[in-house]
Amino acid sequence: MKIGVLVFPAVEELDFVGPWEMFGMWGLIGSSVRTHLVGQSTEPLRCAKGLTVVPEFSFEDCPPLDVLLVPGGQGTRQQVDNPALITFVKHQVEQHTRCVMSVCTGAFILHRAGLLLGRRATTHWASLKRLRELGDVQVVEERWVVDGPVWTSAGVSAGTDMALAYIDHVSGPATASKVQMAVEYYPEARFYGGEDAHTKAPRYALPRK
């Protein structure tokens, strides 16, 4: 299985590094999964917090992908108007992928590519209203949302949870458990500053009573 992780200038690091870690470990524990960074070119690019990454493939030489993950970040506000990127996403999804994923505001790239029409989807809590205002998406406030071959997650760290859920979906809970244990991913349900400090958080993120 070939998984492509799209990157672009000002992409949010954890949006793609979290899923990258999950998918990478999936490959290491014995599956045939291979994960690749894909950019418009193979030139180094600077992410939102200053990390510099080098894509392995450009849009032109990227092989057919089974899964395409589109992260978010401030860079999406420019990339939704990048014809080359939107064309690449549409081509991979229409011709090759079995699943396309977005993390955070990567949902707006999927929307611009025509992939969210009439579907259930989510995004970062601060962009839920903006996604609803598009008018043709059923916005759901969940950690991640699955609608057929389209998987979308909430902001930043939520992509890691979605990636682990996808591993479970494809390879089953035993494999997902091995990945979870290998990366020691057991998030602590702690709300710094107390619940009142998180009043803007969507309902899925609030402490359970």
Compact summary:
This protein is an alpha/beta fold and 209 residues long. The chain has seven helices and eleven strands. 40% of the residues are buried.
Task: Outline the structure in words.
The protein has 209 residues and is an alpha/beta fold. It has a single domain (2-205), classed as Rossmann fold (3-Layer(aba) Sandwich). 33% of the residues lie in helices and 18% in strands. It is built from 7 helices and 11 strands. The strands form 3 sheets. A 7-stranded mixed beta sheet has the order 5-2-1-6-7-11-10, sandwiched between helices. The chain has a two-stranded antiparallel sheet with strand order 3-4. Strand 8 (120-121), helix 5 (128-132) and strand 9 (138-139) form a beta-alpha-beta unit. Helix 1 runs parallel beside helix 6. The chain is globular, with a radius of gyration of 16 Å. The termini are far apart. The mean pLDDT is 94.
